[in-house]
Amino acid sequence: MSRTRRSNRGWLRTLTSVEEPTARLVCFPHSGGTAAVYRPWSTALPADVALHAVQYPGHADRLAEPPADSIAEMATQVAAELRQLPPVRCALIGHSLGALVAYETARAMRDSGAPVHHLFVSGAAGPWLAGGGTTHRLGDDELWSSVVRLGGIEPEIADQPELRDLLLPVLRSDITLHETYRPAPEATPLECPVRGYYNTEDPLVDADQVATWAAVNDGEFSMRALPGGHFRLLSHPDEMVADIMAALTESGVRR
User: Known catalytic residue: 70?
Assistant: First the structure.
């Protein structure tokens, strides 16, 4: 049974101050990630692009809320908030778990008559390959160590037992959502362009897995390799941001 969730702050966090944006970029974090991981992107964006990031329940300023029950539920809630914003061309970017939430949000927006104009996915296999992992079943020490090795936990946090105990439940919940995710079998293909990213030293996702995102749309699909491991976009976002902006300009999302 789905839990009723009420938050005074909602799902979206605005990371830039743009009075009349020509485009909107909405970012979806990885498992255990918060909206704040995309804050450094604000300085790399053009002045006319509004930047927003999603805050999942159970994370950061929503720590007191229970985690989401499903990726589809998260997408429905995010789409509802996006439809309340002033209408400008909108693109979504999600990394790892966030790629799946972004995809489901794009579907929800399309089904409500307000389709997004571009979907970017990073560090994730396509929806039909995304589930089936067993990391969420590991013991606490193994689970924590595996995420630390990938670079998903900042070093100053990794060795603090109190923070580990606070973050582990929501991290496990996020990974569970990712590894038990199944796309709707009757999902209608998106019409917007889709661009996938993978990192050449990522032990979790390779080029062939990212290439399966081509099946989610009837339009243009492209992909690009970037150097580094699974979480390189957190420490070196400029190259990805520049590529996203170039793609948005080329496709007419950003005029």
Answer: no
